[in-house]
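Before anything else, study the sequence and fold tokens given here and see whether the fold suits the sequence. Record follows:
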Amino acid sequence: MGGFYSLNRHIDGINKVIAKYPQSGLKPLADWNQLVDTMTIVTVDPGEYTLDWLLVNRGRPNTDVSGAAADAGRHRVMTTVKEHLESKIGRTIAPSNLNRLNNSLRTGAVFKLDGRAIDMADPEILAAARRAVRDPVGIMMNGIKGAWDIIDTVVMVGGHPAHYAEEIAERMPDMPIYVPKHSVFANVEGLQLIGEGIAKAEALAGAEAA
């Protein structure tokens, strides 16, 4: 829900995505209230070890088709890419290098190993990453079941959602997919907005009671 509520600050970004998908029949949103009142959105969060998704229909979460898949997050992607690189270079990548590898996967920065610069944009590496997310995305697609027909937009949150967004887009090329620029902060941003709203409501109730 944090990722969903963060969209209060991303209406312009969502409208830009809507404009790229005229076949969706969606019109530009006037504001957050219109989003809540009219749209059905799935927020997808690839965590460290799990892939979580939440369907929100006109502001109300639908837990029947929301869920999580284990061994489906960034660690799975990193492990698959690590195994690919090990087979290519003929040596084991030490655990002490995994944090750097994860950062390179997330940012696209060159990964250095024994003086060798490894380009994270190498098509073979990108293909390995996509293989890692294929099954998790399939689990999510099956979990959401027939509800896909009423979904307006997919919103990606979390620290490294690009490979997951690409896999979803390949399966559903007509589905608008929004990836916030700083998606890693989306959940906490939304929780902050929820907290501010609660504090404001409590202050108003206290003032009225006084």
About this structure: Helices lie at 2-5, 11-20, 32-38, 74-89, 98-107, 123-144, 162-171, 186-209. The mean pLDDT is 91. The CA atoms of residues 154 and 201 lie 30 Å apart. The first strand starts at residue 40 and ends at 46.
